[in-house]
Amino acid sequence: MTFSNSDLSGKVALVTGGSRGIGAATAVRLARGGADVAVTYVRGKEGAEEVVGTVRALGRRAVALRADSGDPEEAAGAVGLAAEALGGRLDVLVNNAGVGVLGPLESLPLAEVDRVLAVNVRGVFLASQAAAARMESGGRIITVGTCLTQRVPGPGGTLYAMSKSALVGLTKALARELGARGITANVVHPGPTDTDMNPADGPYAAGQAELTALGRFGTAAEVASTVAYLAGADYVTGAEFVVDGGHAA
């Protein structure tokens, strides 16, 4: 799914986990639409700084912030830091940071369960809560989910699918709670997407591609295009957008 350019001139956006992959592509795509952009990272400082350089080369302001979405203070605090660094406002939050732990249900240690839920659920909730407190009418909260909320084709994905499925309920509830203020909330579910974490030429790529109707991986830019559309859309909220090449078909 691709959309024409959204006009985001004068907007300020925060993309969590924006140092690589879908997050990096989203940050650049929002900047191309006219937004100033902050990105967070945990270990990818070099990648985050490269994204900042690309955004600045497009004539937009940008900042990279080290913030672990699994830490409650950092997850919420990144919102304020981003706003302060880019003029004191925040218009768009893209909850992209996430961790994926796959493995047999019976062998998943509690520490892994806690970490996945801390980053993928609690971190998203806290960032959204902090963003909503700052946003005015026209604010946008966009969360990156996964195609596994639509279809789980095999074993090993229970923890990850559970954590991302929680974001569907969160998004719908945010839409209801914030709609009267003119703030929208939506979730985007990528399918197999070519990133450094899951490359299209990786050892498990062929099987993933075969699960899609199009028979291929998506690109980070294709997902970012949908996020950018939602950042500029006025009458879309509480919705799930599936960018999965037909994985759920």
UniProtKB/TrEMBL annotation:
Domain Ketoreductase: 11-195
Keywords annotated in UniProt: Oxidoreductase
The keyword Oxidoreductase appears for this protein: yes
Top-rank taxon: Bacteria
Cross-referenced SUPFAM superfamilies: NAD(P)-binding Rossmann-fold domains (SSF51735)
PANTHER family, alphabetized: OXIDOREDUCTASE, SHORT-CHAIN DEHYDROGENASE/REDUCTASE FAMILY (AFU_ORTHOLOGUE AFUA_5G02870), SHORT-CHAIN DEHYDROGENASE_REDUCTASE FAMILY PROTEIN
Family statement: Belongs to the short-chain dehydrogenases/reductases (SDR) family.
Protein name: SDR family oxidoreductase
